[in-house]
Specification:
275 residues; 9 strands; binds hypoxanthine
Protein backbone atom coordinates (compact mmCIF):
# COMPACT_ATOMS: atom_id res chain seq x y z
CA UNK A 1 0.00 0.00 0.00
CA UNK A 2 1.17 3.57 -0.77
CA UNK A 3 2.49 5.25 2.39
CA UNK A 4 0.25 8.24 1.80
CA UNK A 5 -2.89 6.07 2.00
CA UNK A 6 -1.59 4.54 5.22
CA UNK A 7 -1.10 8.07 6.66
CA UNK A 8 -4.69 9.08 5.80
CA UNK A 9 -6.06 5.85 7.27
CA UNK A 10 -4.13 6.27 10.53
CA UNK A 11 -5.35 9.88 10.81
CA UNK A 12 -8.94 8.81 10.07
CA UNK A 13 -8.72 6.02 12.69
CA UNK A 14 -7.50 8.55 15.27
CA UNK A 15 -10.44 10.88 14.47
CA UNK A 16 -12.92 7.97 14.68
CA UNK A 17 -11.54 7.08 18.11
CA UNK A 18 -12.11 10.66 19.32
CA UNK A 19 -15.67 10.84 18.00
CA UNK A 20 -16.99 7.37 18.70
CA UNK A 21 -17.03 6.40 15.03
CA UNK A 22 -19.21 9.04 13.32
CA UNK A 23 -19.30 9.16 9.52
CA UNK A 24 -19.40 12.86 8.66
CA UNK A 25 -21.43 13.37 5.50
CA UNK A 26 -20.25 16.91 4.83
CA UNK A 27 -16.76 18.41 5.16
CA UNK A 28 -16.22 22.12 5.63
CA UNK A 29 -13.00 24.11 5.26
CA UNK A 30 -13.04 27.41 7.11
CA UNK A 31 -10.83 30.13 5.64
CA UNK A 32 -9.11 33.15 7.22
CA UNK A 33 -11.41 34.73 9.79
CA UNK A 34 -14.25 32.33 8.96
CA UNK A 35 -13.56 29.90 11.79
CA UNK A 36 -16.58 31.06 13.80
CA UNK A 37 -18.86 28.73 11.86
CA UNK A 38 -17.43 26.12 14.18
CA UNK A 39 -19.38 27.73 17.07
CA UNK A 40 -22.62 26.68 15.35
CA UNK A 41 -21.68 23.00 15.28
CA UNK A 42 -23.69 21.07 17.88
CA UNK A 43 -22.29 18.28 20.07
CA UNK A 44 -18.89 19.42 18.84
CA UNK A 45 -15.80 17.31 19.41
CA UNK A 46 -12.67 19.43 18.92
CA UNK A 47 -9.66 17.54 17.59
CA UNK A 48 -6.45 19.63 17.42
CA UNK A 49 -4.33 18.86 14.35
CA UNK A 50 -1.26 18.69 16.55
CA UNK A 51 -2.53 15.45 18.13
CA UNK A 52 -3.33 13.73 14.82
CA UNK A 53 -0.63 11.38 13.56
CA UNK A 54 0.89 12.67 10.32
CA UNK A 55 -0.71 16.15 10.51
CA UNK A 56 1.25 19.40 10.32
CA UNK A 57 0.34 22.41 12.50
CA UNK A 58 -1.36 25.37 10.75
CA UNK A 59 0.66 28.59 11.11
CA UNK A 60 -1.34 31.12 9.05
CA UNK A 61 -2.78 34.31 10.56
CA UNK A 62 -6.48 33.99 11.53
CA UNK A 63 -6.31 30.21 11.38
CA UNK A 64 -6.79 27.82 14.24
CA UNK A 65 -5.69 24.24 13.89
CA UNK A 66 -8.61 21.94 14.69
CA UNK A 67 -11.08 19.53 13.22
CA UNK A 68 -14.54 20.09 14.68
CA UNK A 69 -16.82 17.07 14.36
CA UNK A 70 -20.52 17.36 15.19
CA UNK A 71 -23.90 18.30 13.69
CA UNK A 72 -24.87 21.30 11.57
CA UNK A 73 -28.22 21.71 9.80
CA UNK A 74 -29.18 18.26 11.10
CA UNK A 75 -26.24 16.54 9.35
CA UNK A 76 -23.03 14.98 10.61
CA UNK A 77 -20.24 17.37 9.61
CA UNK A 78 -16.49 17.66 9.96
CA UNK A 79 -15.00 21.14 9.77
CA UNK A 80 -11.39 22.19 9.35
CA UNK A 81 -10.88 25.26 11.52
CA UNK A 82 -7.69 26.34 9.81
CA UNK A 83 -6.13 24.95 6.67
CA UNK A 84 -2.63 24.30 5.38
CA UNK A 85 -1.32 26.71 2.74
CA UNK A 86 1.37 25.99 0.18
CA UNK A 87 3.05 29.30 1.17
CA UNK A 88 3.63 27.91 4.67
CA UNK A 89 6.12 25.56 3.06
CA UNK A 90 4.16 22.29 3.23
CA UNK A 91 4.38 19.89 0.31
CA UNK A 92 1.09 19.37 -1.54
CA UNK A 93 0.49 16.03 0.19
CA UNK A 94 0.29 17.91 3.50
CA UNK A 95 -1.60 20.91 2.08
CA UNK A 96 -4.37 18.46 1.13
CA UNK A 97 -4.09 15.92 3.97
CA UNK A 98 -7.29 17.14 5.66
CA UNK A 99 -9.39 16.59 2.54
CA UNK A 100 -8.11 13.09 1.92
CA UNK A 101 -8.57 12.19 5.58
CA UNK A 102 -12.20 13.36 5.33
CA UNK A 103 -12.63 11.22 2.24
CA UNK A 104 -11.30 8.15 4.07
CA UNK A 105 -13.79 8.94 6.87
CA UNK A 106 -16.60 8.70 4.29
CA UNK A 107 -17.27 12.40 3.66
CA UNK A 108 -19.03 12.87 0.31
CA UNK A 109 -19.46 16.64 -0.01
CA UNK A 110 -17.02 19.45 0.65
CA UNK A 111 -17.84 23.10 1.42
CA UNK A 112 -14.71 25.25 1.07
CA UNK A 113 -14.47 28.89 2.07
CA UNK A 114 -11.78 31.52 1.79
CA UNK A 115 -10.98 35.18 2.13
CA UNK A 116 -10.18 36.62 -1.28
CA UNK A 117 -9.21 39.82 -3.02
CA UNK A 118 -11.52 41.10 -5.75
CA UNK A 119 -10.15 41.35 -9.28
CA UNK A 120 -13.67 42.08 -10.53
CA UNK A 121 -14.12 45.86 -10.20
CA UNK A 122 -17.87 45.44 -9.49
CA UNK A 123 -17.17 43.51 -6.28
CA UNK A 124 -17.18 45.20 -2.88
CA UNK A 125 -15.54 44.34 0.43
CA UNK A 126 -17.84 41.98 2.35
CA UNK A 127 -19.44 40.44 -0.77
CA UNK A 128 -20.10 36.70 -0.68
CA UNK A 129 -19.18 35.03 -3.96
CA UNK A 130 -20.07 31.54 -5.17
CA UNK A 131 -16.98 30.07 -6.83
CA UNK A 132 -18.14 28.74 -10.20
CA UNK A 133 -14.71 27.75 -11.53
CA UNK A 134 -11.03 28.31 -10.87
CA UNK A 135 -7.73 29.09 -12.56
CA UNK A 136 -4.68 27.55 -10.93
CA UNK A 137 -1.19 28.96 -10.66
CA UNK A 138 -0.24 26.23 -8.16
CA UNK A 139 1.72 23.09 -8.92
CA UNK A 140 -0.93 20.41 -9.34
CA UNK A 141 -1.32 18.44 -6.06
CA UNK A 142 -1.89 15.21 -8.05
CA UNK A 143 1.59 15.26 -9.60
CA UNK A 144 3.41 12.05 -8.71
CA UNK A 145 2.27 8.42 -8.59
CA UNK A 146 -1.53 8.31 -8.75
CA UNK A 147 -3.38 7.08 -5.68
CA UNK A 148 -5.61 4.67 -7.62
CA UNK A 149 -7.48 3.80 -4.38
CA UNK A 150 -8.68 7.43 -4.26
CA UNK A 151 -9.35 8.31 -7.87
CA UNK A 152 -8.31 8.29 -11.54
CA UNK A 153 -5.02 9.51 -13.04
CA UNK A 154 -6.74 12.18 -15.15
CA UNK A 155 -9.72 13.59 -13.24
CA UNK A 156 -12.29 15.63 -15.12
CA UNK A 157 -12.53 19.24 -13.93
CA UNK A 158 -15.36 20.55 -16.15
CA UNK A 159 -17.84 20.76 -13.26
CA UNK A 160 -15.36 20.96 -10.38
CA UNK A 161 -17.79 23.21 -8.50
CA UNK A 162 -21.08 21.31 -8.36
CA UNK A 163 -23.74 23.14 -10.42
CA UNK A 164 -26.59 21.80 -8.26
CA UNK A 165 -24.93 23.07 -5.10
CA UNK A 166 -24.51 26.48 -6.76
CA UNK A 167 -28.25 26.51 -7.56
CA UNK A 168 -29.02 25.46 -3.99
CA UNK A 169 -26.88 28.33 -2.66
CA UNK A 170 -28.76 30.83 -4.80
CA UNK A 171 -32.14 29.45 -3.73
CA UNK A 172 -31.22 29.47 -0.03
CA UNK A 173 -29.68 32.95 -0.23
CA UNK A 174 -32.80 34.31 -1.97
CA UNK A 175 -35.00 32.94 0.85
CA UNK A 176 -32.71 34.46 3.45
CA UNK A 177 -32.35 37.86 1.75
CA UNK A 178 -28.60 37.36 1.35
CA UNK A 179 -27.01 38.83 -1.79
CA UNK A 180 -24.58 36.61 -3.68
CA UNK A 181 -22.25 36.97 -6.62
CA UNK A 182 -20.75 34.24 -8.77
CA UNK A 183 -17.19 34.27 -10.00
CA UNK A 184 -13.94 32.59 -11.00
CA UNK A 185 -11.32 32.12 -8.28
CA UNK A 186 -7.71 32.44 -9.32
CA UNK A 187 -5.34 30.69 -6.93
CA UNK A 188 -1.64 31.39 -6.71
CA UNK A 189 0.96 30.44 -4.17
CA UNK A 190 1.55 33.76 -2.36
CA UNK A 191 2.72 34.76 0.17
CA UNK A 192 3.15 38.06 -1.69
CA UNK A 193 -0.02 39.84 -2.73
CA UNK A 194 -0.27 40.54 -6.45
CA UNK A 195 1.52 43.40 -8.17
CA UNK A 196 -0.80 45.74 -10.10
CA UNK A 197 0.51 44.23 -13.35
CA UNK A 198 -0.37 40.76 -12.08
CA UNK A 199 -3.84 41.93 -11.04
CA UNK A 200 -4.44 43.25 -14.58
CA UNK A 201 -3.12 39.98 -16.04
CA UNK A 202 -5.35 37.80 -13.82
CA UNK A 203 -8.37 39.97 -14.64
CA UNK A 204 -7.61 39.71 -18.36
CA UNK A 205 -7.54 35.91 -18.23
CA UNK A 206 -10.90 35.76 -16.43
CA UNK A 207 -10.33 36.03 -12.68
CA UNK A 208 -12.93 37.61 -10.41
CA UNK A 209 -11.26 36.58 -7.14
CA UNK A 210 -7.63 36.26 -6.06
CA UNK A 211 -6.43 33.99 -3.30
CA UNK A 212 -3.73 31.69 -1.97
CA UNK A 213 -5.69 28.57 -1.05
CA UNK A 214 -8.67 26.40 -2.02
CA UNK A 215 -7.49 25.21 -5.46
CA UNK A 216 -5.28 22.30 -4.23
CA UNK A 217 -8.05 21.18 -1.84
CA UNK A 218 -10.69 21.27 -4.58
CA UNK A 219 -8.50 19.32 -7.02
CA UNK A 220 -7.89 16.58 -4.45
CA UNK A 221 -11.57 16.53 -3.43
CA UNK A 222 -12.65 16.11 -7.06
CA UNK A 223 -10.02 13.41 -7.54
CA UNK A 224 -11.61 11.37 -4.77
CA UNK A 225 -15.14 12.00 -6.07
CA UNK A 226 -16.44 14.56 -3.57
CA UNK A 227 -19.08 17.11 -4.57
CA UNK A 228 -17.62 20.57 -4.02
CA UNK A 229 -19.17 23.90 -3.11
CA UNK A 230 -16.86 26.93 -2.82
CA UNK A 231 -17.47 30.40 -1.42
CA UNK A 232 -15.23 33.45 -1.15
CA UNK A 233 -15.63 36.41 1.15
CA UNK A 234 -14.22 39.55 -0.48
CA UNK A 235 -11.89 41.13 2.05
CA UNK A 236 -10.18 43.69 -0.19
CA UNK A 237 -10.26 45.04 -3.71
CA UNK A 238 -7.10 44.27 -5.66
CA UNK A 239 -5.00 47.19 -6.88
CA UNK A 240 -5.00 47.78 -10.63
CA UNK A 241 -2.54 50.67 -10.57
CA UNK A 242 0.68 51.65 -8.84
CA UNK A 243 -0.68 54.99 -7.62
CA UNK A 244 -2.74 54.09 -4.57
CA UNK A 245 -0.86 52.32 -1.79
CA UNK A 246 -1.64 48.66 -1.34
CA UNK A 247 -4.10 48.42 1.54
CA UNK A 248 -3.68 44.66 1.86
CA UNK A 249 -2.66 43.45 5.26
CA UNK A 250 -3.29 40.14 6.94
CA UNK A 251 -5.12 41.60 9.97
CA UNK A 252 -7.44 43.68 7.79
CA UNK A 253 -8.31 40.61 5.72
CA UNK A 254 -9.22 38.71 8.88
CA UNK A 255 -11.37 41.62 10.21
CA UNK A 256 -13.37 41.90 6.97
CA UNK A 257 -13.87 38.17 6.79
CA UNK A 258 -15.23 38.19 10.33
CA UNK A 259 -17.95 40.68 9.42
CA UNK A 260 -19.19 38.51 6.53
CA UNK A 261 -18.70 35.22 8.39
CA UNK A 262 -22.11 35.39 10.02
CA UNK A 263 -23.96 35.51 6.68
CA UNK A 264 -21.82 32.77 5.19
CA UNK A 265 -22.30 30.60 8.24
CA UNK A 266 -26.10 30.90 8.09
CA UNK A 267 -26.05 30.12 4.38
CA UNK A 268 -23.87 27.03 4.81
CA UNK A 269 -26.12 25.76 7.62
CA UNK A 270 -29.25 26.20 5.50
CA UNK A 271 -27.66 24.54 2.46
CA UNK A 272 -26.40 21.61 4.49
CA UNK A 273 -29.82 21.06 6.07
CA UNK A 274 -31.31 21.00 2.55
CA UNK A 275 -28.87 18.38 1.20
N1 LIG B 1 -4.77 38.43 -3.05
C1 LIG B 1 -4.48 37.16 -2.74
N2 LIG B 1 -4.98 36.54 -1.68
C2 LIG B 1 -5.80 37.24 -0.88
C3 LIG B 1 -6.14 38.57 -1.14
C4 LIG B 1 -5.58 39.21 -2.29
O1 LIG B 1 -5.83 40.40 -2.59
N3 LIG B 1 -6.99 38.97 -0.16
C5 LIG B 1 -7.16 37.90 0.67
N4 LIG B 1 -6.45 36.84 0.24
Amino acid sequence: MDNRIRTYQIAADYIRQQTGGHTPEVGIVLGSGLGRLADRIEDAVVIPYKGIPGFPVSTAVGHKGNFIVGRLGGKEVIAMQGRFHYYEGYPMDLVTIGIRTMSVLGTKSLFVSNAAGAANPDYRVGDLVIIRDHISFFPNPLIGPNLDEMGPRFPDMTCAYDPELQDLAEACAAQMGIGLRKGVYCGSTGPTYETPAEVRFYRTVGADLLGMSTVPEVIVARHCGMRVFGMSVVTNCANFDNVTGNANDGDDVVKQADAAAERMTSLFAKMISAL
